[in-house]
Amino acid sequence: MRKLVGFWLLATSCLGFAQVIQVVPRPQSVAIEGEPIAVAGKLYVVATPALNGEADLIRTWWNATKSSAKSGAVTAELRIQQGIPAEAYALRVSEGKIVVAGGSAAAVFYGIQTLIQAENGSKTLPAMTVRDQPAFAYRGMHLDVCRHFFGVNFVKRYLDLMAEHKMNRFHWHLTEDQGWRIEIKRYPRLTEVGAWRNASQIGPYGDQRFDSTRYGGFYTQDEVREIVAYAAARHITVVPEIELPGHSRAALAAYPQLSCTGNQQPVATGWGVFDDVYCAGNDSVFSFLEGVLDEVLALFPGEYIHIGGDECPKTRWHDCAKCQARLAKEGLADEHALQSYFIRRIEGYLNARGRQIIGWDEILEGGLAPNATVMSWRGEAGGIAAAKAGHDAIMTPGKPCYWDHYQSKDAGEPHAIGGFNPVESVFLYNPVPAEVSAEEAKHILGAQANLWTEYVLTPAHAEYMILPRQLALAEVLWTGPRRSEDLPEFRIRATQRSRALKARGFHVAPHFLLPESKPVRRREPK
After folding, report:
1. What is the maximum alpha-carbon separation in the chain?
2. Residue 249 placed within a domain
3. Domain range holding 99?
4. How far apart are CA 33 and CA 196, in angstroms?
5. Domains contained in the chain, number
6. Are 79 and 90 spatial neighbours (Cβ–Cβ below 8 Å)?
7. Residues 164 and 126 placed together within one structural domain of the fold
8. Same domain, 125 and 142
9. DSSP result, 239-278
10. Which of 119, 372, 382, 446 could bridge across to 376 with cysteines, CB 3.0–4.6 Å?
11. Which residues contact 225 (CB under 8 A, 6 or more apart)?
12. Is residue 236 part of a domain?
């Protein structure tokens, strides 16, 4: 449910913005209260065992070793505070003391991220009081590792960017027509065969050109556990996506008996949508998927499993005797209803094991599964329909949340799938459509940006496509919907933040940012 800025925050609104600190996303309330203090010398950390990770984080930032000597040290007190929202925190910096109090360990972590950005390598911190909490509960980033594969180290780097900007859901797109990327021990051919393709489409889609290079990769279950633990330490929940019933050519290459035709086919080498999908009339398909999901559930402890549900052609089902028999036996009106049957059956299996499904907005077609959350990508209509029906929704419309689209019309931009989603359109996006009532708006959990990788081949290119757009979306989801008059001040903070990221080796697109030759000047709000 959407977290609105509530009484706890409103009660402190008198603090105002005495000065804007250079932090993204912008905190809800900041009061500058004195001269800056030095970030130097010894640091004595007071924290309960539940905050050991956060204590280590603040020590690492301060460059301090663990010490029991309080004399002559700056004291950092970290604590979980009862009676405030789970992700809300209060931060106080004064001479000789830092206090971060939050409604949970995650909230304390976010407060420390604010500290780190506010210092920004200057070795000073403003004396200040910050009170802060997110506008939305679901603040997501997606990464497609199927069209092009990205190793463990880059996934961790991706998670670091999310954590630093207070984003908390990592949607990991693990299976596709062009590659199966997660080890499933019960079905070894999924990675022996399904993780590898014999060629890849190159250049603009219309050229239909292909290389001849075998391409692939996958994550072992140990690597998945490592990434899930790394995310959890940063208070990010990983949402795995196991595509069904469409986008399944890699799985069918490994186990062709799961298709309607049974014909042997290779892992897809080109981009697009393919007619061959899991056979909805074959009970062995459901046994297979349940076996896959059993191992997925053991690896991912989060509430949600994303089951795809998008772009599933019905051609094979229409011509398949087993599918038509299923349709008749279940009294289904058509193949769209057959897809709904497929999704509902998988949802029932997952619900019985304490999990919930998310699906792309096509799962609305033929009837929505009882407890499903809808991820609205074909515009906002799917999210609106879900909210009006009492279902939760996550907004990720192609405009402005598909970041495989161009962010600039400048000549020389790397080739992209098309579209145009500049930073400005991301910054001005409001995840709550005007068409929903205040009550329905409670079902809009938040939003997510998607990075599809047909045309994104390297980590450097991936970073270029998400930065600085991620800064804009993080601000919308944490601080709340923005206005056009907020853009100039945001551009200053985004520029400073981007310079800090570039100094650490991140690749940032320059188009929205202030030119390097111009000094970043802080403008006081009137």
Report:
1. 80
2. yes
3. 7-132
4. 59
5. 2
6. no
7. no
8. no
9. EEEEEESSS-HHHHHH-GGGBSS----PPP-S-S--S--B
10. 382
11. 299
12. yes
- Judge whether residue 168 has pLDDT over 80: yes
Structure tokens at 58: 């603040």
In a domain, 304, yes or no: yes
Match 């297979």 to its residue by tokens.
Answer: 288
CA dist., res. 27 & res. 15, Å (int)? 12
Query: How far is CA 79 from each of CA 91, 127, 201, 235, 317, rounded to the nearest angstrom?
Result: 11, 19, 52, 16, 57
State which amino acid sits at residue 196: W
**Which of 111, 132, 153 finishes a domain?**
132
pLDDT in tens, 21-61: 999 999 999 999 988 999 988 999 999 999 999 999 999 99
Q: Is 402 exposed, middle or buried (0-12, 13-18, 19+ CB in 10 A)?
A: buried
DSSP string, 111-162: HHHHHHHHHTTSSEEEEEEEEE--S-SEEEEEEE-SSS---HHHHHHHHHHH
Alpha-carbon distance 305 to 357, whole Å? 5
User: Which positions ≥6 away from 468 have C-beta within 8 Å?
Assistant: 423, 494, 497, 498, 508, 509, 512, 513
Q: What is the pLDDT of residue 517?
A: 60
CATH number at residue 86: 3.30.379.10
Is this prediction's pTM over 0.85? Answer: yes
In terms of DSSP bridges, do strands 196-197 and 215-216 run parallel, antiparallel, or are they unpaired?
A: antiparallel
pLDDT tens per residue, range 415-452: 999 999 999 999 999 999 999 999 999 999 999 999 99
Amino acid at 332: L
Helix, strand, coil shares, percent, the chain, to 5? 35, 20, 45
Q: Is the same domain home to 69 and 155?
A: no
- Taken as a whole, the chain contains a residue count of 526
8 A C-beta contact, residue 226 and residue 233:
no
